[in-house]
Amino acid sequence: MNTVVHKSDSRGSADHGWLRSRHTFSFAGYHNPDRVHFGALRVLNDDTVSGGNGFGTHPHDNMEIISIPLFGDLEHKDSTGTGEVIKTGDVQIMSAGSGLRHSEFNHSKEEEVQFLQIWVFPKERDITPRYEQKTFDPEDRMNKFQTVVSPEGADALWINQDAYFSLANLDAGMELSYEVKKPGNGVYFFVLNGEINIADQSLDLRDAVGVTDTSEIHLKARSYAEVLAIEVPMELK
Questions:
Q1: CATH fold of the domain at 11-135
Q2: I want to staple 73 with a disulfide (CB 3.0 to 4.6 A). Which of 28, 54, 107, 209 is the partner?
Q3: 11-135 matches 138-233 in fold
């Protein structure tokens, strides 16, 4: 088993007034040659947008883009004709494919919205752009992993990659194992709340650890904790 730890305060940052962002991997004005991607995981941005503000219409292509609101509601519009509000508890995925344009705005004029924006390199290029979102019950991730993104789809959102996103909320003292779903994949764990040990690494709020070369990873919560596990291929094709 190999691990790489990324502490919260080691992330890149940007403050544009209306937008405060922390970048786990190189993005925009933040460039770290040692932090460009983790396998097929290219971007993990922790964004806070003030009321009434957001990202104007801009293009994307050949990227799987996942948005997970942590607080507040996010308004989405894109060139496929989709217009949705993504609420806390929802997960959204957009396959940019051959190319589309979209915008994201805070749905509230007063309250902040905080969300994760995550980019994953696709398995197949130039597919027809697509959009999907779903509400997931947090009770279904209490002391276990709830898969919210999967290449099989089913109860999860479908992704154009051999990647899996899972959420778990753990009571203090709870122990859990994550089983890697596809041999050769690595798993990037991002702590959303609390204090937790993962793969023998002590992690706190917004810390992360990438784990490779293993089929099973052990977790133990030191307090109530919430964690996002992003399993991705480590080799890009």
A1: Jelly Rolls (2.60.120)
A2: 107
A3: yes
pTM equals 0.97
CA dist 131 and 121 (Å) reads 16
pLDDT tens string 109-158: 989 999 999 999 999 999 999 999 999 999 999 999 999 999 998 899 99
Pairwise CA distance, residues 18 & 214, whole Å:
41
Look up residue 96 and give its amino acid: A
In b/e form, how buried is each residue of 202-219, taking b as 16+ CB within 10 angstroms?
ebeebbbbbbbeeeebeb
Q: Residue 212, SS3? A: strand
Token pair recorded at residue 86 = 């993504």
CATH topology of domain 138-233: Jelly Rolls (2.60.120)
CB atoms within 10 A of CB 42: 20
